[in-house]
Amino acid sequence: MARRNRGPAAAAANRESILSAARRLFAERGYDVPLSAIAKGAGVGQGVLYRHFPTRLDLAFAVFEDHFQQYAMTAALPGPDAFCLLWRGLVDNLIAETAFIDMVSDARKTRVEYDGARRLIDLLADPLRRAVEAGLVPTDVTVEEVMLSIRMAYGIVRTAEAETTPDDLRTTILDAFPRLRCNDA
């Protein structure tokens, strides 16, 4: 039986299928995964993909906006542990989806209006202040140090041997930045 084209009625479902396939394939194959593979994984034609997301960056922004929403919810948690949860979440996402950092790097080169780094700095500031005040991290830890640590952690992930497990990477990264360990809270 031939598939029936549902046209505009399928737009929302197609968009969600594309985002789901992109999320999975960016994680499995990286930011440079062919867009044709994403369209195929979503069960749509490339034209449908491009109607929803004209560029790779548009697609990546949509996929990774979920991360920022999660980071914002974590940052808004009351108490001093929000920073610790946020740092660990950033590390976990970095390990699982290096495509996120690849996308940020690409965006910084091609889209001067991209504000991802600023948004992340803004999300980190208050939780870090609360963690410092509670004595969970040293008083001289700054948001700039956290951002540098994220870039360095990306380097660790990118240069890891293929057989390195995500758990090993997580341990390596958390051990590499003891000032951000939140006193093992």
TrEMBL record:
Pfam families: TetR_N. PANTHER family: HTH-TYPE TRANSCRIPTIONAL REGULATOR BETI, HTH-TYPE TRANSCRIPTIONAL REGULATOR RUTR. GO terms for molecular function: DNA-binding transcription factor activity; transcription cis-regulatory region binding. PROSITE patterns: HTH_TETR_2. Keywords: DNA-binding, Transcription, Transcription regulation. This is HTH tetR-type domain-containing protein. InterPro entries: Homeodomain-like_sf, HTH-type_TetR-like_transc_reg, HTH_TetR, Tet_transcr_reg_TetR-rel_C_sf. The keyword Magnesium does not apply. Residues 34-53 bind DNA. It comes from the Bacteria. The keyword DNA-binding applies. It comes from Microlunatus endophyticus. Residues 12-71 form the HTH tetR-type domain.
